[in-house]
Amino acid sequence: MSDEEVEHVEEEYEEEEEAQEEAPPPPAEVHEVHEEVHEVHEPEEKPRPKLTAPKIPEGEKVDFDDIQKKRQNKDLMELQALIDSHFEARKKEEEELVALKERIEKRRAERAEQQRIRAEKERERQNRLAEEKARREEEEAKRRAEDDLKKKKALSSMGANYSSYLAKADQKRGKKQTAREMKKKVLAERRKPLNIDHLSEDKLRDKAKELWDALYQLEIDKFEYGEKLKRQKYDVSGAPPASPASGVPHPRPLGPPPPARNMPGPPPGWPPPQPRPGAGRRAPRASVLRALEGPCES
């Protein structure tokens, strides 16, 4: 007996069982009840469905255990296929995850290499700039030394005032250096770091008021120093200094003029020849001459 026939027989058997289960139960027996006054009639009996036993095809005997076993084997095969597909998908995801990690590590290594190369180039650039700066400073120092040597030679050839000139030059250079150092010191004392990141709103307002007061005091000091400098100039020159807005030139201090230095004479051919008054000009018109002579005659 083939599998198809077995399945057909099995389906017919299941359909008959379902039909038996869905069939209504047979009506209960109704006994006649006789009473003295009323007579109860017996209800009509409904026809029962005719059920026929399933016909088993002649031939080989049907083995239901074999059918159940085949069903179980089929279910097991489907379950095994689902398990295999699940593990294959999981294996594929793990491979993709490993490949992604490898790409991330590769990209991280490339980025680190790029940063290292960039840092090395920046370090080389800084070293090159420092070397160039040192070279320029060295060349400037050499040029300054050569200029000083030339000046010394020129001054030594001028006369006996060379030593006094050198002393004055050194003294002046020392004063400039001292004044520059004092200025740097004062600025370093006045320029304090401004740490306001951790301050609240009220403290920021107090800090702003403090800075405003300091700026106001600096403006006062600046004005007072300017007035003091003007008074000192007035005491030295004997005349009040001219304000730049007035346009009046500064008066010359009292006393004899400074002695003229021994300047070399003008070069040969100086001054250049001047053109004649009438040369290269057109004669004035008569109307212009009359206009010029009219006021003189009157």
Automatic annotation (TrEMBL):
Record GO biological process: regulation of muscle contraction
InterPro entries: TNNT, Troponin, Troponin_sf
GO cellular component terms, A-Z: troponin complex
Compositional bias per record (Acidic residues), positions renumbered to this chain: 1-21
Region (Disordered): 1-67, 108-187, 234-298
Domain of life: Eukaryota
Keyword tags: Acetylation, Muscle protein, Phosphoprotein
Keyword Phosphoprotein: yes
Residue spans of biased composition, Low complexity class: 236-249
Biased composition (Pro residues): 250-276
Residue ranges, compositional bias (Basic and acidic residues): 29-48, 57-67, 108-150, 178-187
Reported function: Troponin T is the tropomyosin-binding subunit of troponin, the thin filament regulatory complex which confers calcium-sensitivity to striated muscle actomyosin ATPase activity.
Family indicated by similarity: Belongs to the troponin T family.
Protein name: Troponin T, fast skeletal muscle
Species this protein is from: Sus scrofa (Pig)
